[in-house]
Amino acid sequence: MNNFNDRERGFEAKYSFDLEQDFRIEAHLYKMLAVWAGEQMGMAPADCDAYAKKVIGEVIANPKENSIVTFLLADFGRNNIDVTVSTLQAKLEQLRPIARAEMLAG
C-alpha cells in the first residue's frame, strides 16, 4: 500500500509542477506579446517593460478568455493604431514556442 501512496504523491507533485510551469510559460508569453505591443505603440524599451508588467497584472487580476488580446486591442485603439484580433492571435502563436523554449532553458 505504501508504494501506491508514494506513486500517487509522485503523480500529484508532477501535476502541480506542470501547472506551475504552464503558468510561468503563459506569463512569459504575455510579457513578450505586451513588449511587442508597446514597441508597436512607439514606447521606449523601459516603457515597454513597465507596460508589460501592467498588462500581465491586469490579465491575471481579470482572467477571461482572450483577455490579453482584448486588453491590447483596447490600448491599440486608444493609440489610433489599427491592429486586428487575428493579428494579435497570430503574434501570440508565433511567440508561444519561443516563450516555451526560453522558460524551459532556464
Task: Give a written overview of the molecule.
- By secondary structure, the chain is mainly α.
- The protein has one domain (23-105).
- It has 4 helices and no strands.
- The mean pLDDT is 90.
Draw up the topology in text.
Blueprint: H1 2-40, H2 45-61, H3 67-78, H4 85-105
Average pLDDT, all residues: 90
Distance between the termini: 37 Å
What is the SS-derived class?
A: mainly alpha
Number of helical segments with 4 or more residues: 4
Number of strands: 0
Helix content: over 70%
Oligomeric organization of the protein chains: single chain
Radius of gyration: 17 Å
Number of domains: 1
Strand content: under 5%
Residue stretches low in confidence (pLDDT < 50, at least 5 long) are none
The biggest beta sheet, please? Answer: none
InterPro entries: ATPase_inh_sub_z, ATPase_inh_sub_z_sf
Pfam family, one: ATPaseInh_sub_z
Organism: Thalassospira lohafexi
Protein name: DUF1476 domain-containing protein
